[in-house]
Amino acid sequence: MILYRLDMLRACGLAKAMNFTSNITSLLTFIILGQVNFALGLTMGVCLMLGAYIGAHSAIRFGAKFIRPVFVTVVLILAVKLAWQAWF
Q1: Taking the model in full, what pTM does it have?
Q2: Among candidates 46, 20, 50, 17, which has minimal Cα distance to 38?
Q3: How far apart are CA 19 and CA 12, in angstroms?
Q4: Could you give the CA distance from residue 67 to residue 49 in angstroms, rounded to a whole number?
């Protein structure tokens, strides 16, 4: 952001566009190679949209006082899980 003098909003937008492009390219490559499980992918997509919907509405309704502890808790749980997998 500092190197290219982008504000946070433009940097996030650019990152989203770059991620979208690489994801579509990867998806097309895997489809051509026959490596896509469409049933699993569609199920995951529906669950992702449901979670995003619930998360966005929770963030708007309850605000940062609710979101921050949830976020910190999830990050700590994932850190412990990754440490456990790495060492045990």
Answers
A1: 0.62
A2: 46
A3: 10
A4: 18
